[in-house]
Amino acid sequence: MKVIVINGPMGVGKTTVGKTIADRYPGTAFIDGDWCMDLHPFVGNAETRAMAVDNILHMVGNYLHCSACSMVVLVWLMDDLRVCRQVTDGISALGAETESVTLVCDRESLVRRWKNDRECEWRTDEWLEVSLKSLPRFAAMENPIDTGALTVEQVADRIMLGK
Known about the structure:
It is a single chain. This protein is globular. It is α/β, with parallel strands linked by helices. It has a single domain, classed as P-loop containing nucleotide triphosphate hydrolases (Rossmann fold, 3-Layer(aba) Sandwich), CATH 3.40.50. It is built from six helices and five strands.
């Protein structure tokens, strides 16, 4: 089974692209890593990240044993390369093929997308600044796809075609 891991800064379009892929391919499970760390109020530290990785790997493992599931799409903001490796190595240890991509875009595209997203509670000016500051870090990660001038469908196509 294939597990597609989509990484990138807040607001770049990970969830939208991941859901588009899941909708296109029957039998695809969609996992948002944020579900695996949904504490109120939010706490982002080493302990909660480790818990989220463990939760993600349990979910992936359960989907691997489900006859109705043929592929998994995981979206999660992983700005620490050690966390990325824990997730991808853990998925590989479960016996699944992993394909990882990092979605990136320019500042203007991120601001535009951020302002147009009315549904996400994280779309505050403070979190936008955090996301903008993270752009160079994500641009330096493996397998970047610059989504700035692409539609959601084009990004999904590039991921599925491995380009």
